[in-house]
Amino acid sequence: IFVALSDLGVNSVSDLQKKFEGKVLNVGTQAAGSLPDMAAKAVVPELGISEYNVVNYAGGAGELVPAVLGGHVDIGICQPSEVSTYLENGDVTIIGVTSAYSGGARCSDV
Q: Whole-model pTM?
């Protein structure tokens, strides 16, 4: 899933496109070559965001999630289970999914 810190004010891919028009988007993923890393490199250019940086965290979700929560990256690509607590308390917002599987009830409206 693609998640953003709720304070960023982005609730959808459309919001993301508007907010980062003409700006650089920093996308956090797990280790280089991981599925989230490949998803970032394949999906973000298709969103119409021309300038972006992929920031890989070799420590996986243990480094990526704090980076999203701390505002060090604009969005993160991870598994729903890795951010479930933060989704439930409203710290992060799901703005997109990377597969046909919706992630269950948490992602049903994405």
A: 0.85
Contact between 30 and 60 under an 8 Å Cβ cutoff? The reply is yes
Token pair of 96, please?
A: 């997109």
**What is the CB neighbour count within 10 angstroms for residue 80?**
18
Per residue, the 3-state secondary structure of 26-81, as one string, reads EEEEECCCCHHHHHHHHHHHHHCCCCEEEEEECCCHHHHHHHHHCCCCCEEECCHH
User: What DSSP state is assigned to residue 10?
Assistant: -
Sorted by sequence, the CB contacts under 8 Å of residue 105 that are 6+ apart come out as none
Q: Which residues pair with 77 in a beta bridge?
A: 2
- 56-88 per-position pLDDT tens digit: 999 889 999 999 999 999 999 999 999 999 999
Tell me how far apart the alpha carbons of residues 95 and 8 are, in angstroms, rounded to a whole number: 11
36-45 per-position pLDDT tens digit: 889 899 999 8
